[in-house]
Amino acid sequence: MNRFLLTKIFILLFAILPIIYLIYILVKFSVDLPTWVEWYSVPLFEKMFSGSLTFYDLWSQHNEHRLVFPHLLTLALGQLTGWNLKYEIAFNLILGFGIFLSLVYFLNREVKHFRKYSILFILPTLSFLVFSLSQFENWTWGMQKLVFMNLFSILVGLLILTSPIISWVAVGAAVVFGTFATYSYAGGLSYWPIGFVIIFLHPKISKIRKVKFLTIWVVISLLIYISYFFKYQKPAFNPPIPMTLVFEHPIDYVKLVLMLLGSPLEIFSPNRAIASGIFGLVIYAYLLLKFIRGKLFNNTLILSSVALGFYAIFNSVVTGAGRLGLGLPTQPVSRYITVVELFWVVIVVMIYFNLNISQKSKSENFLSFNWLKIFTIFTIVLISAFSINSSAQGTKITIERYGFLSDVRGQLFSNDPSLDKLALWGSIYPRVSVGDLRGVTNITQLHKDLDTLSKYKLSIFRE
């Protein structure tokens, strides 16, 4: 067996390690128990089983989102499994595989740009990012499949639009994935302007066909926006979050956006997350300017990378504006990390592409160093190391969460008459604000939801 084959096998095994580790953690530390916002699905189950479910119920708002497709999947899995949330967690994992394989397909499609240094060398880093437990909320929380559904759809849709050959079928497929993404998570709204720019800049589409594609894209985008915002209401946060808050507190807003961007590399310390966000933005902006000056936007690799990076950045900007009124978090919020992981994936790809196009000597050995190579290796190793560390941080919180939820579940099955079962259910039930009261449990609705679970034998009430 030659040295290159051994190296290839070693790298692939190294790339598989985060997947094996994630599966182990999810199998051992996930709990089949509806928690907090997952309870909002219970009235949908009541309507589905009673035959009164309508499209409006699926389409109605959840904060800023219209969760048509996540609702459909929740109801389907709930009916098939008695709402065993471990199946939803398994679906999250399947979508994670889909995201990673889509990235591998993307790199393999553009393999001609990596003739100097093989794409194999960055696969472990991409795996560390995609399967990181820094996004522990999304991996272990069944309802958060909405984020993975969105990201997978966005990734596939944008890769279709940046294919070397674009046909009407490809545009139609991109529209389908964009619709799926938009009605899975509000961030999908940014897909449509990004798609417009991609078609406009695409180097392989003739001018006549480009006009036709852009026209139909604009028409469909307008229909999507009209349908999304029809009867839309601004989410009622208590206290309210005014639209002008970003301009009233610009420094806090910038800090929050930078924290979001840096969160895949640090989820304990806000300051380290902010520093990571600055580090990532500087590299991204530098490479973007370099590629613009080098007129490389006729390159589908760069077009795809920039589009995916903008999607992650735009989501951080919008999320920061929407959550600023809740105050700066004491630590980065895990549920927002999945989309932002894409930002760091793109940085790794762009850095590595930059190294490949900058090496003029074809006889140069990979282990011979120059400053660009040192910077590239150092940066990719640094991103990998911080991603592994943030995954370890997420693992710690996952185990703590498991301890709490498994204890609650165990007590709910207990026959001890001294236990207050309603209080136990209340500890994992969403809290609301009523008047001057903050974080109270709606006991009436909790009783209704428990009656639904019991009547239809869902969750821990199933046979």
UniProtKB/TrEMBL annotation:
Protein name from the UniProt record: Glycosyltransferase RgtA/B/C/D-like domain-containing protein
Taxon lineage: Bacteria, Candidatus Curtissiibacteriota
Keywords assigned by UniProt, alphabetized: Membrane, Transmembrane, Transmembrane helix
Origin superkingdom: Bacteria
Spans traversing the lipid bilayer: 9-27, 89-107, 119-136, 148-177, 183-201, 213-230, 273-289, 296-314, 334-355, 367-388
